[in-house]
Amino acid sequence: MKVDVLNIEGKSAGRSVDLPDAIFGIEPNEHAVYLAVKQYNANQRQGTHKAKERGEIKGSTRKIKKQKGTGTARAGSIKNPLFKGGGRMFGPKPRNYSFKVNKKVKRIARLSALSAKAASGELAVIEDFTFDAPEVKSFKNILNNLEIGNKKSLIVTGDYDSNLYLSCRNLAKSNVMNAKDLNTYSILNANKVLITESAVTKMTELLG
């Protein structure tokens, strides 16, 4: 698949790059994508929710009223879940929500997400660029030149670039990620995926 390379001004750089069909042209596997996204979302959950049960509530354990003759239901403890301030029955407890997905399934999911973006025209290749220091304004200008300033965007780089990352960290709709850390959720969550030329080479090595 031949794709024109764009420069940071949003225009053609005068050259093209070949995107391997084995990565950007497969038939998407929806179930693999579902499992990968489900695992990603599950891993984001802290699982620190906790409610006190009746055995953990502070209070006396004596019987609060006689068993019979009151005209109301019997009650044996002030910590009864039916009373205000009582314990909660079967409440949430701290737990780990993560689960295992095979590496091959996650790889197929990434390939499916990239292929879907390429097929829908939401994927483009951009020339490599960087900053000498973090520059949020310059980064926003590049996004505006590419006409994605108001869209969710993902820029994939060949290697980790701290200046690029820091330049977009305060922008809610933009994200910079290196090819090695690329995941299915980040690809699908972006309205536009921009892959640098060095990232294409790196992804071919990792996923090809």
In short:
With 208 residues, the chain is of the alpha/beta class. Helices cover 34% and strands 15% of the residues.
Give the strand order, joined by hyphens, for the main sheet: 2-1-3-6-4-5
> What's the total helix number?
7
Helix content: 25-40%
Query: So, CATH architecture of the largest domain?
Result: 3-Layer(aba) Sandwich
Strand proportion, as a percent range, falls in 5-15%
**Span between N and C termini?**
14 Å
Question: Which parts are unreliable, with pLDDT below 50 for 5 consecutive residues or more?
Answer: none
Total domains, how many?
2
Task: Give the integer mean of the pLDDT values.
Answer: 92
- Return the CATH topology of the largest domain: Ribosomal Protein L4, Chain: A
Q: How many strands appear in the DSSP assignment?
A: 6
CATH superfamily of the largest domain: Ribosomal protein L4/L1
Task: Determine the structural class based on helices, strands and strand pairing.
Answer: alpha/beta
Task: Based on Cα principal axes, name the global outline.
Answer: elongated
From the alpha-carbon coordinates, what is the Rg to the nearest angstrom?
27 Å
* Biggest β-sheet strands, sense, barrel: 6 strands, mixed
Main CATH class of the largest domain: Alpha Beta
Order of helices and strands: EEHHHEHEHEHEH
